């Protein structure tokens, strides 16, 4: 056993994923098949990163507005921080909730937590008490990492509030706040200051000992679902399959050590971790990490010589920004994601000399892409083909496990080497969300069509009642139930209304108990309930009653048509 910090025992419910309570394992025969095919490795995420850093120590790993870190820099600094996390009492297997934005300290914290053997839980900086209090209890979070100085909302104070009376939260970490040893329960410690002065050889040896005790088939990361049934479900991602997901994505876009991959959307998100962080690092490429603000992002892309970029729906207009010509000088590939891509947008980017493809993905696993070489016809009419040769796709009748006829529209169901077999501690929900033989029912309506010799998937809509606001999924029923807690609201129906920037926003059709209230009153109500701001309705329509179908069910189709017509008229 090495010197301090000593390695603590694993949590009581620890052990490999196949033995951990609440995790649905991959069948042993599938694990053997994925390894035999060379897809799953036998190392943890931290060990995989260490191997890349050892191979490319002097190459740039991370560029932000504050400077550049090489792989050697990033590796050594995260060893030190990991050692410091161990001194704070963080144990292998302990869940750590991340609530931070795109900055260098976020990447340092990410790899350090993994190196300490803990499990990042990927929440969003704009989640609030309604979401965080339930997520932290479901996973048994031990630590909460928040960002200091975020402006209008004090995440550090929020972290203290969440820890008060919590059954498991005992460590509050920050990025960008005064650091040092904690002054008492609930006092924050700046993660970037941890382990200062620690001998690099000691820190590295400690990390290696921690990692030697972790099964590569154990849970590495908890992601969160889009929340189609209330508070987001927890998605357990395993070391071996999660790194494979990233390696396959890098290969799909032909990245190598010369690639500089720009990322603007939240990095602590499945697309951020897989596409922005792990994928470039898996091949020794550089992540150019910036914010969603194009005024900041595009100049950094230009200065860093970004070669590839993922744009979410909120950035589809980037090509019209005055800084885009300089930002795109070194660009080779633009990946578009978050919603159906208009044909004209492909043409706009490609007139600028940029290969433009798209990504359709989900935290549960499956990625569909139109990678370089895919015909324009396939890109215009589909979201492409599965990332892995061992991915499986079925199109099912929405109410059964029976497949639809070839070419027909049904529910997209998937299974494969990086798609989970069940949500964490959600047996009842898993019985509905997965087929008897382990296919994940996505809730998306899709069809498979052969175009130019390629059997590609097209997304035709969704079954789940979800608003896709710039890539973030808002569960309509969850918001409706929250609105009904206001005494002025007798009935509520939340529907998607089209939006040119974000794709969709939420509109609430409401029936009043008396006098209608204003949008600001509704927002104050939801804010008081601790609901994340991106879920708040952005328009109200007060009606005498909500429309019903012939069989007496709420007719949301009519409401969506109504708001679309209203917006068109306006």
Task: Please give a structural write-up.
The protein has about 575 residues and is of the alpha/beta class. The chain folds into four domains: about 25-45 and about 365-465, Roll (Luciferase, domain 3); about 70-215, Rossmann fold, CATH 3.40.50.980; about 255-365, Rossmann fold, CATH 3.40.50; about 465-570, 2-Layer Sandwich (GMP Synthetase, Chain A, domain 3), CATH 3.30.300. The strands form six sheets. Strands 2-1-11-10-12-13-14-15-16 form a nine-stranded mixed β-sheet, sandwiched between helices. Strands 4-3-5-6-7 form a five-stranded parallel β-sheet, sandwiched between helices. Strands 17-18-19-20 form a four-stranded antiparallel β-sheet. It comes from Klenkia taihuensis.
Short description:
The chain has 570 residues and is an alpha/beta fold.
Using brief descriptors, characterize the structure shown.
570 residues, alpha/beta, Luciferase, domain 3, Rossmann fold, nine-stranded mixed sheet, five-stranded parallel sheet, 17 helices, globular, ligase, AMP-binding_CS, medium-chain fatty acid-CoA ligase activity, AMP-dep_synth/lig_dom
List the helices and strands and how they pair.
Blueprint: H1 28-36, H2 45-55, E1 60-64, E2 67-70, H3 71-88, E3 95-99, H4 104-115, E4 119-122, H5 129-139, E5 143-147, H6 155-163, E6 171-175, E7 188-190, H7 200-212, E8 219-224, E9 234-238, H8 239-252, E10 260-263, H9 270-282, E11 286-289, H10 294-304, E12 308-311, H11 324-327, E13 333-337, H12 343-351, E14 355-362, E15 365-369, H13 376-381, E16 385-386, E17 392-396, E18 410-415, H14 427-433, E19 440-451, E20 454-462, E21 466-469, E22 472-475, H15 476-483, E23 489-499, E24 503-512, H16 519-528, E25 539-542, H17 556-569
Parallel strand pairs: 1-11, 3-4, 3-5, 5-6, 6-7, 10-11, 10-12, 12-13, 13-14, 24-25
Antiparallel strand pairs: 1-2, 8-9, 14-15, 15-16, 17-18, 18-19, 19-20, 21-22, 23-24
Helix pairs in contact: 2-3, 3-4, 3-7, 8-9
């Amino acid at each position: 056993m090495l010197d301090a910090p000593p390695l603590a025992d694993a949590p009581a419910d620890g052990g490999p994923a196949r033995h951990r309570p609440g995790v649905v394992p991959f069948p042993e025969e599938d694990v053997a098949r994925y390894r035999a095919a060379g897809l799953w490795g036998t190392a943890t995420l931290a060990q995989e990163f260490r191997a890349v850093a050892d191979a490319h120590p002097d190459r740039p790993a991370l560029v932000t507005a504050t400077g550049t870190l090489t792989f050697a820099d990033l590796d050594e600094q995260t060893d030190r921080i990991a050692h410091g996390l161990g001194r704070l009492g963080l144990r292998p297997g302990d869940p750590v909730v991340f609530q931070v934005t795109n900055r260098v300290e976020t990447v340092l914290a990410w790899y350090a937590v993994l190196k300490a053997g803990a499990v990042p839980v990927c929440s969003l900086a704009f989640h609030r008490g309604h979401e965080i209090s339930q997520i932290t209890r479901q996973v048994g979070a031990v630590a909460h990492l928040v960002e200091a100085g975020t402006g209008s909302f004090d995440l550090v104070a929020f972290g203290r509030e969440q820890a008060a009376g919590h059954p498991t939260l005992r460590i509050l970490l920050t990025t960008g706040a005064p650091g040092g040893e904690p002054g008492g329960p609930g006092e924050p410690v700046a993660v970037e200051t941890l382990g200062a002065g620690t001998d690099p050889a000691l820190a590295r040896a400690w990390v290696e000992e921690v990692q030697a005790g972790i099964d590569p088939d154990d849970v590495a990361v908890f992601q969160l679902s889009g929340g189609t049934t209330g508070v987001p479900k927890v998605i357990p991602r395993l070391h071996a399959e999660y790194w494979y997901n990233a390696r396959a994505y890098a290969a799909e876009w032909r990245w190598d050590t010369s690639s500089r991959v720009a990322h603007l959307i939240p990095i602590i998100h499945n697309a951020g971790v897989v596409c922005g962080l792990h994928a470039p690092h898996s091949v020794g490429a550089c992540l150019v990490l910036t914010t969603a603000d194009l005024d900041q992002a595009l100049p950094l892309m230009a200065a860093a010589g970004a070669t590839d970029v993922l744009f979410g729906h909120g950035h589809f207009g980037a090509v019209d920004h005055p800084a885009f010509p300089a930002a795109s000088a070194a660009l080779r590939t633009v990946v578009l994601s978050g919603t159906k891509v208009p044909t004209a947008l492909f043409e706009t980017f490609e007139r600028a000399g940029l290969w433009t493809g798209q990504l359709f993905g989900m935290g549960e696993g499956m990625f569909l892409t139109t990678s370089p070489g895919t015909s324009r016809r396939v890109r215009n009419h589909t979201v492409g083909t599965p990332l892995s040769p061992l991915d499986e796709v079925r199109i099912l009748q929405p109410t059964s496990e029976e497949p639809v006829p070839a070419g027909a529209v049904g529910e997209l169901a998937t299974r494969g080497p990086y798609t989970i077999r069940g949500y964490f501690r959600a047996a009842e929900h898993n019985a509905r969300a997965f087929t008897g033989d382990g296919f994940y029912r996505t809730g998306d309506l899709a069809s498979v069509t052969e175009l130019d010799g390629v059997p590609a998937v097209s997304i035709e809509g969704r079954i789940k009642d979800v608003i896709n606001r710039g890539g973030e999924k808002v569960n309509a029923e969850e918001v409706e139930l929250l609105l009904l807690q206001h005494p002025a609201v007798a009935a509520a129906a939340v529907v998607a209304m089209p939006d040119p920037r974000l794709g969709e926003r939420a509109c609430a059709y409401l029936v009043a108990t008396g006098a209608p209230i204003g949008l600001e009153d509704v927002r104050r109500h939801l804010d008081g309930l601790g609901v994340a701001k991106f879920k708040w309705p952005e328009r109200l329509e007060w009606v005498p009653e909500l429309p019903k179908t012939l069989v007496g069910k709420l007719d949301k189709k009519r409401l969506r048509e109504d708001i679309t017509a209203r917006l068109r008229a306006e």
